[in-house]
From TrEMBL:
<protein>
    <recommendedName>
        <fullName>aldehyde dehydrogenase (NAD(+))</fullName>
        <ecNumber>1.2.1.3</ecNumber>
    </recommendedName>
</protein>
<dbReference type="InterPro" id="IPR016161">
    <property type="entry name" value="Ald_DH/histidinol_DH"/>
</dbReference>
<dbReference type="Pfam" id="PF00171">
    <property type="entry name" value="Aldedh"/>
</dbReference>
<dbReference type="InterPro" id="IPR016163">
    <property type="entry name" value="Ald_DH_C"/>
</dbReference>
<feature type="active site">
    <location>
        <position position="273"/>
    </location>
</feature>
<dbReference type="InterPro" id="IPR044638">
    <property type="entry name" value="ALDH7A1-like"/>
</dbReference>
<dbReference type="GO" id="GO:0004029">
    <property type="term" value="F:aldehyde dehydrogenase (NAD+) activity"/>
</dbReference>
<dbReference type="InterPro" id="IPR029510">
    <property type="entry name" value="Ald_DH_CS_GLU"/>
</dbReference>
<keyword id="KW-0520">NAD</keyword>
<keyword id="KW-0560">Oxidoreductase</keyword>
<dbReference type="InterPro" id="IPR016162">
    <property type="entry name" value="Ald_DH_N"/>
</dbReference>
<dbReference type="InterPro" id="IPR015590">
    <property type="entry name" value="Aldehyde_DH_dom"/>
</dbReference>
<feature type="domain" description="Aldehyde dehydrogenase">
    <location>
        <begin position="40"/>
        <end position="495"/>
    </location>
</feature>
<comment type="similarity">
    <text>Belongs to the aldehyde dehydrogenase family.</text>
</comment>
<comment type="subunit">
    <text>Homotetramer.</text>
</comment>
Length: 516
């Protein structure tokens, strides 16, 4: 296999494991047509736990992107014509490749993104699970036969590949989101072009290396899977590229809307997974210890940098004081620290930019009348550490409508289920939501027509931690896309409604003499 890494030895002993992922202190950031190359700017990837450099990556230039896309377009037809179960076998081998590197790749997720080690390993496991799911799916991409109203006619729906799927991903799930998209896109017969986040390029390269090795071992064209490290310029090239019928975008609502307008202008399709602003409702009959554990996990896990992080806690007045007391006790025990260290529960924020987002957010909270119950400050250490924060504030405050991407939880008091649902639904975003109750009437109201307006509607579990078997995604400003399980695969294919006349007459033309 041609390697994209240049020098070999890392200065820091604790980074030596990266060599086993094919990484080096200096790396080439574009894999296209089976060749590693890169002629764009060089970026340094930073360890969020100490703000020291890990390695450098030379990003793709627009010429690298274009050369890679030519190889991708050449590979397209061959991959579309490969039988789906054979494509599934390739994805199975990718899963095996990931399994072999699970602890190392998981550690890299933790090191470069900043989430704690079990979450890093869990993220790679999710990709592996997606591979398994997609292998089964490769034998089930079935259409349907529909009764025709015309005599001697058959009508059916046939699903065919789109050709090429562009995948643009966010920093907070630098590996799994590619997995959600690529596993399904590949078994559906599409080539994949991936641009990861500019601040997690090592993850992009290490993951690509595992995937590329499978295509090379099977002597398949390298153009079936392309990665191009870069920022807005490469992302924008993907959005504008008419060779790419579907762009799956995961990131902020602001950038997602921009990408959508560009792709729609060229009549392409988008699959959007955008910002969340998720709530947990705790009713007066909830099992409080369960609710407290779930809220802590949902609000502080991944240092509040999940799209499904709980940002709003809506508590019935009868249990409000007890809930808050339990939560404050739990918050005080959370160990904030280096992401790869064993006993850390809350790692750093991803970058200095995230730190200023937190500081600005806290300023706004205070200016808009928020009362900080615990936390609210940055921690004076070399890494991007902040205190897990609980805030009492009016639900009408403007800041509550925004996604503050850190461990900041707003708490509100309500008197009834109706009030709680209205509050849950009152923000622009619509990703995840959960209610804690033991009352069946409450549960079925919550999941019914007048309940939560989100894409994920849970009961007695946190807002995060979705299983891959279900369709994942959200409504409103979250973009409306669905990824992973259920029938999400349909978005990666083109549906043809085919009507076949197997008789000798055309019923519509009866009564006309064509002279034949
Ligand atoms: P972001 O929007 O800043 O960046 C996302 C991606 O878009 C990156 O790869 C970035 O380089 C690229 N990009 C930037 N400008 C672009 C442009 N003009 N054209 C094309 N691409 C461009 O988001 P982020 O800060 O990396 O991630 C955090 C956000 O992602 C949060 O809002 C979070 O809720 C969201 N997110 C959503 C989901 C979901 O499934 N709904 C999952 C993960 C993250």
């Amino acid at each position: 296999m041609r390697v994209g890494a240049m020098a070999v030895k890392f200065e820091r002993e604790d980074y030596q494991f990266l060599t086993e992922l094919g990484l080096a202190p200096e790396n080439l950031g574009c894999y296209g047509g089976g060749v590693w190359r890169a002629n764009g700017p060089t970026v340094t990837t930073i360890n969020p736990s100490d703000n020291e450099p890990i390695a450098t990556v030379r990003e793709a230039s627009l010429e690298d992107y274009e050369d890679s896309m030519k190889a991708c377009a050449d590979a397209r037809r061959m991959w579309m014509l490969t039988p789906a179960p054979k494509r599934g076998e390739i994805v199975r081998q990718i899963g095996d490749g990931l399994r072999a590197k699970l602890p190392l790749l998981g550690k890299l997720v933790s090191l470069e993104m900043g989430k704690i080690l079990p979450e890093g390993i869990g993220e790679v496991q999710e990709f592996i699970d997606m591979c398994d799911y997609a292998v089964g799916l490769s034998r089930q991409l079935s259409g349907s036969i529909i009764p025709s109203e015309r005599p001697n006619h058959a009508m059916m729906e046939v699903w065919n590949p789109l050709g090429i799927v562009g995948v643009i991903t966010a920093f907070n799930f630098p590996c799994a989101v590619l997995g959600w998209n690529a596993c399904i896109a590949l078994v559906c017969g599409n080539c994949v072009v991936w641009k990861g986040a500019p601040t997690t390029p090592l993850l992009t390269l290490a993951t690509t290396r595992i995937i590329a090795e499978v295509f090379e071992r099977n002597k398949l064209p390298g153009g079936i899977f392309t990665c191009a490290c870069g920022g807005a310029e490469i992302g924008s090239a993907i959005a504008h590229d008419a060779r790419i019928p579907l762009v799956s975008f995961t990131g902020s609502t602001k950038v997602g809307m921009l990408v959508q307008s560009i792709v729609h202008a060229r009549h392409g399709k988008v699959l959007l997974e955008l910002s969340g602003n998720n709530a947990i409702i705790v009713m007066d009959d909830a099992v409080l210890p369960l609710a407290i554990r779930a809220v802590l996990f949902a609000a502080v896990g991944t240092a509040g940098q999940r799209c499904t992080t709980c940002r709003r806690l809506i508590v019935h007045e009868k249990v409000y004081d007890d809930m808050l007391e339990g939560l404050l006790k739990a918050y005080k025990q959370v160990k904030v620290g280096n992401s790869v260290e064993g006993d850390t529960l809350c790692g750093p924020l991803h970058s200095k930019l995230s730190m200023s987002g937190f500081t600005e957010g806290i300023k706004k909270i205070k200016a808009q009348g928020g009362n900080i119950l615990t936390g609210g400050s940055t921690i004076n250490r070399a890494g991007n550490f902040v205190e897990p924060t609980l805030v009492e504030i009016s639900h009408d405050a403007e800041v509550v409508r925004e996604e503050l991407f850190g461990p900041v939880l707003y708490v509100f008091k309500i008197k009834s289920l109706e009030e709680a649902i209205e509050m849950n639904n009152s923000v622009p975003q619509g990703l995840s939501s959960s209610i804690f109750t033991r009352n069946p009437e409450t549960i079925f109201t919550w999941i019914g027509p007048t309940g939560s307006d989100c894409g994920i509607v849970n009961v007695n579990i946190p807002t995060n931690g979705a299983e891959i078997g279900g369709a994942f995604g959200g409504e409103k400003a979250t973009g409306g896309g669905r990824e992973a399980g259920s029938d999400s695969w349909k978005q990666y294919m083109h549906r043809a409604t085919c009507t076949i006349n197997y008789g000798k007459d055309l019923p519509l033309a009866q009564g006309i003499n064509f002279g034949g």
